[in-house]
Amino acid sequence: MTVTRITLVEGDITEQQVDAVVNAANSSLLGGGGVDGAIHRKGGPQILEDCRRLRASHYGKGLPAGRAVATTAGRLPARWVVHTVGPVHLVEEYDKRAEQLASCYRESLRVAAELGARTVAFPAVSAGVYGWPLEDAARIALGTVAAARSGPVRELEEVRFVLFGAAAYRAFEREWRALGLDEERSQGQESEEPGGQEQEGRS
Ligand code: AR6
By the 8 A CB rule, do 6 and 178 touch? Predict the structure, then answer.
C-alpha cells in the first residue's frame, strides 16, 4: 500500500496543479478576503455561482464550521474547490474549536477522495483572519492529515500544504519534521532527493 505523501510548499494555492484545492471559506460561502478572495478572483464567477446554488439547495443557514463542500474550480488549474469553514480561534472554547479545525481537514479529504481526487492542496485553515496561532494550526493540520491516511483517504497520492509566506512555511516545516514526515518522504518509493523541489519548493 502506498502512503499518501504529505508535502509542503511556500506559495499561492491558486497556482497549484492539483485535482482539488481547499478554500478557507466562511459559513456564507459567498466569498471574503485571504485565500477565499484569491480563489474567487482567480477562479472567476463560476465558483461563486456554484456556491450560491449550494446555499439555496442545502445550506440555507450557511455551512457550519468543520464541514466541507465542493464546487467546480472555474479557471483555476485544479478541477475542484473544496470549501471548508474553519473556526475562529477562541481560547475559552479551545477544545471544541480545535476539534472543528481537525474536522475541516478530515471532511475536506473525504469530499476530495469521494470526487476521485488524487492530489489535494490545503492552505493553513483558520491561521489568517480567524486568528489561529500558526504553530498550533500546523500541529492540528499535519497531525489530522497524517492520521487520516490510514482511513478512507488511502487512494490519495499527495496532500500538499501551500503556505503563504516564510513564517507559515517554517511553522509547518517544524511540525512536519517533528512528525517524521520528512523521513517518510526520503524512505518512500518515489526516490526523490530529500531536500528536493517540493520540500524546498518556495515560489
Ligand atoms: N495561498 C495560500 N495561502 C494563502 C493565500 C493564498 N493565495 N492567501 C492567504 N493565505 P485566511 P482563515 C494564507 O485569512 O483564517 C476570509 O475572509 C494566510 O496567510 O485566508 O481561515 C474568509 O472568507 C493564512 O496563513 O483564512 C473567512 O471569512 C491562511 O492562508 C476568513 O477569511 C488562512 O488565512 C477565514 O479566515
Answer: no
Which neighbouring-strand residues pair with 160? 7, 121
For residue 168, the ligand 1 atom closest to its alpha carbon is: 25
* CA–CA gap between residue 196 and residue 47 (Å, rounded): 34
12 in active site: no
In the reported structure, the alpha carbon of residue 134 is separated from the centroid of ligand 1 by a whole-number distance in angstroms of 12
**Homologous superfamily of 5-202:** Leucine Aminopeptidase, subunit E, domain 1 (3.40.220.10)
Alpha-carbon gap, residue 103 to 190, rounded angstroms: 29
What is the chain's mean pLDDT, rounded?
A: 91
Phi, psi of 61 (to 5 degrees): -95, 5
In the structure grid, which three cell numbers stand for residue 202, read together? 518556495
Q: In terms of Cα–Cα distance, which of 112, 114, 142, 105 is closest to 18?
A: 112
Write out pLDDT tens, residues 32-50.
Answer: 999 999 999 999 999 999 9
Q: Judge whether 86 and 126 are in contact, CB under 8 Å.
A: yes
- pTM to 2 decimal places: 0.93
10 CB under 6 A from ligand 1? Answer: no
What residue segments make up the domains of the chain, in order of their start? 5-202
